[in-house]
Amino acid sequence: MRPEEIKALASIISGVGTDGLGSAIDSGLRRKLRFDMSCAFLFRFNYDAIVVHDGYGGSVPEQTLNSYVRGGYLLDPFYVACMNGHPGGLWRMSALAPDSFFSSGFAISKDIHPCVSSEHGTSVDEVGIIIPIRSQLAVVYSLMRYPDGGPFQKWEMQELAAITPIITSVFELHCRIRYNEVIVNPERTDIEMEDAFMGMMHGQLTDAQRHVAKLILQGHSSTSIASRLKISDGTVKVHKHNIYQRLNISTNAELFRLFINYLAKTS
To answer: What CATH number is associated with residue 259?
Structure first.
């Protein structure tokens, strides 16, 4: 290990338990590869996300970050993966995303998705390290690159994979120091669907319709929804028709706008 690498590792270790951990990790990684933004969030089922590290460099408006933390994270493939017991480690966003995710309202909206480039107005390339703490509680540390920088290359993913065990260990320890109360609290096992979805559609949709609406918002196509729920495509179409009728809308984009408006009211 070279002297500069030892110095970077020492800085990361010193940052555990402090506000400087994310910046120390960013600094160390920038010796190896280029990225434009970074972040780390602590995700728990049915609780607001917690910002563990803000490496957006001021490029994300406070209102957007607040909307994400208050409920936008529910549509994030990394959050969904964490809540469904996905293996930890390094993953591309594209490998976790549903089939229609990149054309969904979440993926292209600056109102709710911090990882939409304010410069380009399109989704950035994102890779993240999933760090499970316990069931339905995990940290995700992500790196992002604007579209004009191209996607993360194979050699860059290899560099990240090599340091992933270190990043995993330091974030695990960091969270047990900084967020111990959050980690040791008992899980809420009596809730089947997150409050933001329940609140938005309370009294308007059946349980089955809320579930379908949730999957639509997360970026699933009708075919994907049918496969996940083990129902026919025709049944999905009936659910969508009834959802639109009950909410007095006609498109997925309008459904997403209802979700955005609900988050704005609860922020």
So the answer is: 1.10.10.10
DSSP H or E run through 145: strand 137-145
Q: Kindly report the number of other CB atoms within 10 A of residue 69's CB atom.
A: 17
- Residue 190 covered by a domain: no
pLDDT in tens, 85-107: 999 999 999 999 999 998 888 88
Residue 211 is classified by DSSP as: H
Question: Which of 184, 214, 247 is the C-terminal boundary of a domain?
Answer: 184
* 39 and 145 belong to one structural domain: yes
CA 264 – CA 222 distance, rounded (Å): 28
DSSP letter (8 states) at residue 87: -
**Tens digit of pLDDT for each residue in 136-192?**
999 999 999 988 888 999 999 999 999 999 999 999 999 999 999 888 776 665 566
Distances in whole angstroms, Cα of residue 169 to Cα of each of 4, 93, 134, 174: 21, 22, 14, 8
pTM (two decimals): 0.91
Joined together, the tokens standing for residue 117 give 């480039």
Instruction: Please tell me whether residues 47 and 143 are part of one structural domain.
Output: yes
Let me know: does 96 contact 77? Beta carbons within 8 Å.
Answer: yes
CB 220 within 8 Å of CB 100: yes
- Domain residues for the domain of 40 are 3-184
Q: Kindly state the DSSP code that residue 47 receives in the 8-state scheme.
A: S
Residue 53's H or E segment, with its range, is strand 50-55
Q: Is the dihedral of CA 259, 69, 221, 102 positive or negative?
A: positive
Band of the pLDDT at 119, cuts 50, 70, 90?
low
Residues 34 and 58 in one domain: yes
CA separation for the pair 233, 171 (Å, rounded): 42
As a whole number of Å, the end-to-end CA separation of the chain is 47
